[in-house]
Design a protein that fits this description.
The chain is mostly helical. It has helices spanning 2-14, 18-34, 39-54, 59-72, 79-95, 99-112, 117-133, 137-150, 155-172, 175-186, 195-205. Helix 5 runs parallel beside helix 7 and helix 7 packs antiparallel against helix 8 (137-150). The longest helix is centred in the last third of the chain and has 18 residues, at 155-172. The model has no long low-confidence stretch (mean pLDDT 96).
């Protein structure tokens, strides 16, 4: 049943629709009904049920389902899921243009779960988007530059964050810093995974030649 529920969640992520979300959520609900004593499976199932609703940005339902998971995991025994849940909440709030709430939520990933580096980097990228969209481009840049200085991340994150920095400086009219950040992306060794950021960086650099 757990494997079936995971397959339903994967399908819901691949083909986003309300119907697929509800099917995935129902699969985890059924799992708890069928195996109520299997706590190693049932407690995470509350999180994955919530996660299904993140695909369709259903903030009220996601918030309710995630709160259930937090209640069940009240001792914080599954920190990776706790951290991901907070990140997803912040991302849904951002998508709903609730930027102040999202900024507060996303900041909790780092303060509460300092060991979850990958999620911290993802949260910081979304945090920068929130600052950008709420009109605070300088704070967006500061967040991104601090992220690069504090966390190594993989090549894709290095490229993507520098691209975001370059485009943000470009928006401010700071040609020197924009070109410097974009050039860092263009100069990275080319790999299939970096194709998107590098193409965007090289296109943006054309105006500086």
């Amino acid at each position: 049943q757990f494997a079936y529920a995971n397959e339903a969640l994967t399908a819901a992520a691949a083909q986003i629709s309300t119907e697929n979300t509800k099917l995935a959520a129902l699969a985890y609900y059924d799992l708890r009904k069928l195996f109520p004593k299997e706590t190693s499976k049932t407690i995470p199932s509350y999180f994955y049920e919530a996660k299904a609703y993140s695909f369709i940005n259903d903030l009220p339902t996601y918030s309710s389902k995630f709160a259930q998971f937090q209640e069940m995991d009240n001792k914080g025994q599954i920190p990776a899921l706790q951290a991901e849940g907070i990140y997803l909440l912040g991302k849904i709030q951002s998508n709903a243009q609730q930027y102040n709430d999202a900024i507060n939520t996303l900041g909790q990933v780092e303060t509460k779960f300092p060991k979850e580096t990958k999620l911290i980097i993802d949260a910081r990228k979304e945090l920068a988007v929130c600052y950008q969209k709420s009109g605070n481009t300088q704070e967006s840049i500061r967040t991104l530059e601090e992220t690069l200085s504090k966390y190594t991340g993989d090549d894709y994150n290095q490229a993507y964050i520098n691209l975001m920095i370059g485009l943000s400086y470009q928006q401010l009219g700071d040609r020197t810093n924009a070109a410097a950040a974009l050039q860092k992306v263009a100069d990275m060794p080319s790999t299939p995974g970096l194709r998107g950021p590098q193409m965007a960086a090289r296109a943006a650099l054309q105006q500086y030649k």
